[in-house]
Amino acid sequence: MYKYGSTQSASVLRKHVARKHWLEAAAASSARYLHNTDGNQAESKPVVFRKRKFIPQEPSKVSDGCLPPQVGVIICGGGIMGASVAYHLALLGWGKNTLLIEQESIAAKKPWSGSGLVGRFESGYTELKLSEYTTQLIKEFTKKGLRTGWRQVGSLNLARTYDRMISFKRMKTQGVAWNIPWEMLSPEECKEKCPLIKVDDILGGLWIPDDGVCEPHLVCDSFLEEAKRMGVQVVEHCAVKKIRATDGKVSQVDTTSGDVKCDFFVNCTGFWAREVGTLSKPKIKIPLRAVEHHYLRTKPFEGISPMNPFVRDFDGRVYFREKEGGVLAGGFEREAKVSLEDGVIPLSQKERVFPPDWDHFHDILDELLKRVPILKTVNLDKLTNVLQAVSPDCKWIMGESPEIENYYVSAGMKTIGVSSAGGIGRALADLIVNGSTSLDIHILDVSRFLGLHNNRKFLTDRCKEVPGKHYQIAYPFDEFKTGRNLRMSPIYPALKEAGAVFGQTMGYERPSYFDQKDKRDEFGMPSFRIAETNTFGKPPWFDIVASEYNACRERVGLADYSSFTKYDLWSKDNEVVDLLQYLCSNDVDVPVGSIIHTGMQNEYGGYENDCSLARLTDTHYMMIAPTIQQTRSMSWIRKKMPSHLRSGVSISDVTSMYTAICIMGPYSRVLLSELTDTDLSPNNFPFFTYTELDVGLANGIRALNITHTGELGYVLYIPNEYALHVYERLYQSGHKYGIQHAGYYATRSLRIEKFYAFWGQDLDTNTTPLECGRSWRVKFNKPIDFIGRAALQKQREEGVKRMYVQLLLNDHDHEVDVWCWGNEPIYRDGKYCGMTTTTGYGFTLEKQVCLGFVRNVDAEGNELPVTNEFVLSGHYEVEVAGMRFEAKVNLHSPNLPTKFPDKEREAYHATRDKPVQADLLSYTKPVGRHTNQ
Q1: 777-783-784 Cα angle (round to 5)
Q2: How far apart, in whole angstroms, are the C-alpha atoms of residue 172 and residue 180?
Q3: Alpha helices per DSSP H over 201-269
Q4: What is the structure's pLDDT at 913?
Q5: H helices of 510-574, where?
């Protein structure tokens, strides 16, 4: 029996009552939506088994308009994203072939669904260009007399801390390259821009004059008005029941108003996109989660101008703007409130609005009152609590789904959908109509995720953290704290015991570095520690990484490569060779036991994949690709596989079947020789070859004589059941050679110093092998035509318009100066000519090392061919957070001084062809074991 007045009993009683209310609410919610499509009550089942099934809502009225029997594109969702896609398809001439359906009335869309900011404050180039196009488009609409609510009020971005000011200065320097007039302001100048704010605790601000505000619902209406004018049919009160696919491609959409055959389907359902993804077979994985977001409105008051800038106080995590004579304000909590954890998804806009939670909004309100003191005296209108959908990495989601061809997605726009709508709509329309878009969008592509990212419990944990990242300082190598310890190699416990501090990539826990301090918790157990940098200068792990780097160069370093993407491709006859010859720009028909590096190019010559291939047998290859390519590479291969090869080639993702351990350094060969009976001498097991060997008592280990860092060494792909045994043998036997664990930061530094390009940082879908110094990996004269050959031939004839270079900074003091972290402007003879991509400290060169691209632009802005002579004849500087440093330029991978020279590796250069390597113009059939690297 509960005793009144007892704190413990009262707590138990509250939990009991709360549980009772939750169960009643869940049962009522489920009963409301669980009907068969014919309107009859579904048979009774336990709520727990039924609540996770998404059942489309039967519209309350018949759809407005008749559905055509067949169209080219069906867009689901009449919000601003769907409207933008429809408008841009119409611009490309597909208006009469496009149908947009909306389950409610589009007129019912409410203006509370966004803050209305239209601006370009984005840390990434892709997001910025999408937003920039949107801004210009809204301005054009306004000039044409379309309703948008646009006002170019500018955005004022405030900084309270030194590091925030550094981040602003980095963005300002990038503005030169991105043609954005960003201006740094003092606190007094910030006050002049917005008299309402208090500035006694800020250090300065970043002013973006071209930014503005609009009314998202008006912009949406204008998109639809123009789309309908150009022939797009819009049907309201029509819900999707199923998306059907034939031969892996979209073929039909079943709706509550009839079925329509189509070639393309676009999921623009925003908050509901993940659930709509379950309406097809296979299901489309769109990882999104609903979190609550509050908008505070005040009543009109004196002293605020309609041209008051949109203000962001990042360190206070708040923003505000003028709206209808008052203030519209909001913010981002450190830990957001995730809703709908029971899995029941509301099917109307009305149900998407939750009761305001003043307790949860309290911290944000305090910051608003601190920054805008007048809010203490004005009359409040209302606090609106609206559900917003966020992705697990705080980025937008767009692109073609990996599961079904011609199924496109646009979702996860957070609270700034209007800011990205125009650019994303244009990009998706380009992809649908032309098969490509001019902007590289891989960083936003839906294929960047794995199935684990779509797990509901993972999303619940992760998406509590995501909104807080929106205004957090974007330090280098930033890590999420939630959703960790998901994918772990069998040697993970041993690495944690050894002091590993982890980073996460594609859900994989990968050691970033090894710190012997505080590696055990209060109970004496190995601690799980997450890597942190939290500075734009010399990082706290600098000395640790230097030690690991030196071990790899002078002794033996041991690194976990398990996160790398790994595929097996095989066939009965020669089909797998024919497929890879078609997909790859290098020649894959090499002797068994050879390893080659190759790109998979798109039709424009850009990199869709950068990988290594080991030929295990005549008809069996192993592919090793970047970690972030695990979903993307499989999707690209299946999409581009010729129909006559589909039944003959088998592809298996074996990433999780093998633990990959790399040992590198001058003593790696002698160490491995002690543990295997295989002859590892250069004559028997040369550089760039593969063999299968035993290590200790384990067998069936795939050994590759490469390291991906330029050092002598081997990558051992070990069946998981043997992984811990092999690791222990290597580490124990390696003590006499000074073996040391090495994390990702150390191997990354090795690769930057050796001028190795990274996919996703240096290489992307717009970068060609000729631009990045890998022309010798392109075999124009091989027997089978490959994707992108025509484009590369044309580029070879006309000359490249940009060139990949290495820059070594002079007079940069790594102890006190701000470091290069990527996206720094490069100047040639005082004129802007390019941007850095990957950067790091070179421990052998004892300098900051920057990789990036250089262009040749004349006085009229025309791009001219870039030659070796042009690059080498210039005087270079790199601008780091407003300060320029002189730099020495390199075109070829440098030969770094070492006590242990290795002839094979000295002869190999990852960037730019050398006389000893395969010549671009003189293709011959390989006769050796490793002539096609």
Answers
A1: 85
A2: 8
A3: 216-229
A4: 62
A5: 542-554
* pLDDT of 546: 98
Could you give the CA distance from residue 26 to residue 559 in angstroms, rounded to a whole number? 49
The burial of 769, by beta-carbon neighbours within 10 Å (0-12 exposed, 13-18 middle, 19 or more buried), is given as buried
Task: Enumerate residue ranges in the chain where pLDDT < 70.
Answer: 1-53, 60, 62, 64, 107-113, 342-344, 347, 907, 913-933
Question: Nearest 5°: CA angle at 411, between 406 and 413?
Answer: 145
Closest by alpha carbon to 890, among 845, 930, 920? 845
Q: Where do we find the tokens 């408008």?
A: 87
Kindly write down the DSSP assignment for every residue of 138-207, as one continuous string.
HHHHHHTT-----B---EEEEE-SHHHHHHHHHHHHHHHHHT---EEE-HHHHHHH-TTS--TT--EEEE
**Strands of the 556-560 sheet, one edge to the other:** 690-695, 698-704, 713-719, 658-664, 556-560, 739-741
> Do 209 and 151 contact (CB within 8 A), yes or no?
no
Q: What is the DSSP letter of 453?
A: G
Q: Distance between CA atoms of 641 and 629, rounded to whole angstroms?
A: 17
**Beta strands across the sheet bearing 98-102:** 233-236, 98-102, 73-76, 264-267, 407-411, 397-400
* Integer angstrom CA distances of residue 872 from 131, 848, 893: 36, 19, 15
Burial class (CB in 10 A: 0-12, 13-18, 19+), 920: middle
How many whole angstroms separate alpha carbon 179 and alpha carbon 278? 42
Rg (CA), the chain: 29
CA angle 534-538-543, nearest 5°? 105
Residue pair 809/878 in contact by the 8 Å Cβ criterion: yes
Q: What is the pLDDT of residues 36-51, one digit of tens each?
A: 333 344 344 444 444 4
Task: Show the tokens assigned to 829.
Answer: 């003879």
How far is residue 544's CA from residue 795's CA, in Å, rounded to a whole number? 44
Helix (H, G, I), strand (E, B) or coil at 584: strand
Backbone angles phi, psi at 67, to 5 degrees: -85, 135
* Closest to 206 (Cα-Cα) out of 135, 120, 142: 120
Q: How far is CA 403 from CA 50, 263, 265, in A?
A: 25, 15, 13
Cβ-contact 665, 718 below 8 angstroms? no
CA distance 759 to 494: 29
